[in-house]
Amino acid sequence: MKLVETNGADIPKIGFGTFQLEPEVAQARVRDALAVGCRHIDTAQMYNNEAAVGEAIRDSGVPREDIFVTTKVWVDRFRDGDLQRSTEESLKRLGLEYVDLLLLHWPNPEVPLEETVGALNDTRRRGMTRHIGVSNFTVNLLREAVAATEYPLVTNQVEFHPHLSQAPVREELARHDMALTAYCPLGQGRVLEEPAIRRIAEAHGKDPGQVVLRWHYQQPDVIAIPRSARAERVRSNMDLLDFELSDAEMAEISSLAREDGRIINPDSLAPAWDNAG
What we know:
The protein is of the alpha/beta class and 277 residues long. It has 10 helices and 10 strands.
């Protein structure tokens, strides 16, 4: 599995996300993912499954240094001091001495970003995380965060799939040598019904989900973290290396972006997005 090299971090391009997975399901599917070669696991404080993820990692038999582990700080712990304490709590739940990547889960306008980014930097300085980044940040928030940070930010984790181009954010990330980490990389299944994707899948003898993940995989600046509660889907999501999409197929899938493509847009958390497509 290829890695994305971004500001000193080497991140596996396809990982396993654990959003909305109950602890016992998260534990089983993380174990399945690691068993079929996945080496990138994504969790968060608000997922309430960090302990289960950590247990699966310990049970897997895979050396800790071979697994890239990401967690995220929830918005109610963004004050200096509180953010560091929340990270210590995450490490205790995970049973790990450090995570590979610590993200700010959503922007929080109630706390100055300079203060939050300073606290995030402190977690890296103290060895609680090897790398830092953000999630659900717009172009302007990215610029503000980059200006405030001492250590490089390595990624912005955002919704990204064929229905949502994220073009302005991707352009800004490129200016700072940052990667895009795609959550909902399959558009919560909505993009899988596209006739173009189904046709391309049939041509390659693959299923539509594998085609969409291969589309992510072939973009050099993109990391994808699909999530599934089904063991067979976890296995198929990693089975991407025996075929390649042509330039024409890549372009056709990218052309599916549309203005109403965004799915995740919570009123209490979402910033003013750069655009809908």
